Amino acid sequence: MAQFHFLQGNINHSARAQDLLLQSMAEWSIDVAVVAEPYFVPARDNWLGCADGSVAIIGGTLIDPSRGRGWVSAVSDGIAVVGAYFSPNKSLADFEGFLVELGAVVNRYHPRPVLVLGDLNAKSSAWGSPVTDSRGEVLEEWAVTTGLVVLNRGSEYTCVRQRGGSIVDVSFASPSVAGRVRDWRVAVDVETLSDHRYIRFDVSAQTAKRPPSNNPDQRRPPMALSASNRELLEEAAL
């Protein structure tokens, strides 16, 4: 089955880190990357930057673009990709206002499948952080209200500094695409020339629906699920 390869990172406005990211994209055949704090956004068809230059999307074919301060969005291979960055130096009230705007962006693409990828400088146990801060609580509630699920798995730090690490780079998805995400991981052993690690994952191509069968046996209604089996299936779909 065909898969689309995604990369997410923050390169701290470093020219060398941006060059290395582009090299890594080529080596790994990345289809779409979301880059927080890029060094610069070149005027090319496969680059799309936000209004203040704090986040960019890199991809082969980007259609239906939109942008604002701290966010940028486009559709690639039938999936709406929203890149986001929010500074740790801004207030909680500013963050709440930013999320209202970001939620409107997500809703604009409905019912198309949506990915929201970025460094939002918010910590929550929902995406593996050992602590939950006020921003994390607000972001958790926003994700639930917006109908998104967290893709982050495990507790590997996405940002590593001398004073310690944190998990501030988060991946969200609408349910229609979350079930197609494969192998979400933090690339812990890969050099980025930044204090942020890369995040990588794949999305399987949407399979075409089967035409109705003429076989009577195949047209029978499915057996009712027991409560325990239903719970197992619901967990598998997460």
TrEMBL record:
<dbReference type="Pfam" id="PF14529">
    <property type="entry name" value="Exo_endo_phos_2"/>
</dbReference>
<protein>
    <submittedName>
        <fullName>Uncharacterized protein LOC113508059</fullName>
    </submittedName>
</protein>
<dbReference type="GO" id="GO:0003824">
    <property type="term" value="F:catalytic activity"/>
</dbReference>
<feature type="region of interest" description="Disordered">
    <location>
        <begin position="204"/>
        <end position="223"/>
    </location>
</feature>
<feature type="domain" description="Endonuclease/exonuclease/phosphatase">
    <location>
        <begin position="81"/>
        <end position="199"/>
    </location>
</feature>
<dbReference type="InterPro" id="IPR005135">
    <property type="entry name" value="Endo/exonuclease/phosphatase"/>
</dbReference>
<dbReference type="InterPro" id="IPR036691">
    <property type="entry name" value="Endo/exonu/phosph_ase_sf"/>
</dbReference>
